[in-house]
Amino acid sequence: MLPTPQLLNQVANFIQGQGKSAYYCLFLLGKEAGLRVSEAVNFDLSLKKKSNLYLIHGKKHKKRAVFVDPSVISELKKNAWKPKQTNRFSFAHFLQKTKKVLGISASTELIPHTLRRCFATYQTNSGMSLPVLQRVLGHSSIRTTALYWKNSEDPKEKVIKDKWLAGKIPKEPTKPIENKPKELPKILEKENNWKIFFARQRNFLETRKIFLNIRWEINLFIENNPRNSQPEFLTAENKLLQAKVKQLEQAKKEQEQIIINLKNDKKGLEELNNSLNSLNKGLEKQIIQVQKEKDTLLKLLTADLKQQQTLTQLDNNKQDNNQELHQQLIAQIQVINKN
């Protein structure tokens, strides 16, 4: 049974609410454009021929132009549709999962091809002619389109449907099948049943006899060989095995202890590594601080040197001036003495 349009809208809203944009676009292309699932997976928005006509690569590499509603194109663009975002198998699995979640009855069909069937059926019910529907769906034979068209609810189109479907659907045989095998006589059936019964009874008695003989031999062996009286070589072997088992258990315990110690050592090494990393970070910070202080000290020293140089120059200039004054005074004294 095909799903109703209301149910298809409910499924579309559910897929959109789940955030599955690729599956939502495939659902719209199958429901609103009637594309096969392989055509919908490879649908490319860039292959636009005319207004709302898109080039489709169908079965056996056949090409056809398909009208896609502008609302569907806008939804595809909103969801950033690109070809080959998913595949037909994952889409089919998702539809089956959606069917279970929404609680759709088992009699209602919901697979990727259901969308194409619904498109063909509802377009037929709305009045689309069979040849037009054939070109839209991309069928090479109009009888294949008539298989979709047979779900139409219009009783007036029954004669046309039968005409197109003639030879496509095999007719049921009207005559009874000849050369039917004759029934066996009841007496022979009873005789065969009795033979089978006696054969089974004889086999049962033989198997029971063999079982009783084996059981008697086992009981006799247990009476002659009680459990406590074991041979000496068995007891010695048991002791050796027990000693080996103890050694293996001890070795296992030692290995477990070694593993625990290694884990603890690993934790200690990790902690030490973390502490060293923190120390390295602190040292790096200190080195950077010392470098900054060094740079500031160098700047101060260079400034002091410049000041000292200027002061020495000033002192030299003063000394030169003092010598000139001293020589002038000596010259004046000599002139006075002469006079």
Shape: flat
Percentage of residues assigned to helices: over 70%
Mean pLDDT across every amino acid position: 79
How many DSSP E strands? Answer: 3
CATH domain class of one domain:
Mainly Alpha
What percentage of the residues does DSSP assign to strands (E)? under 5%
CATH topology name of one domain: hpI Integrase, Chain A
Strand order of the largest sheet: 1-2-3
Helix and strand content put the structural class at: mainly alpha
What value does the Rg take, in angstroms? 52 Å
Question: Gap between N and C termini, in Å?
Answer: 151 Å
CATH architecture of one domain: Orthogonal Bundle
Per DSSP, the total helix count is 11
Query: What is the chain-wise order of helices and strands?
Result: HHHEEEHHHHHHHH
Q: Which residues form runs of ≥5 with pLDDT under 50? A: 167-173, 184-190
Q: In CATH, what is the homologous superfamily of one domain? A: Intergrase catalytic core
Describe what this molecule looks like in 3D:
By secondary structure, this protein is mainly alpha-helical. The protein has a domain of 161 residues: hpI Integrase, Chain A. It is built from eleven helices and three strands, in the order αααβββαααααααα. The chain has a three-stranded antiparallel beta sheet with strand order 1-2-3, with no helix packed on it. Helix 1 runs antiparallel to helix 2, helix 2 packs parallel to helix 6 and helix 7 packs across helix 8.
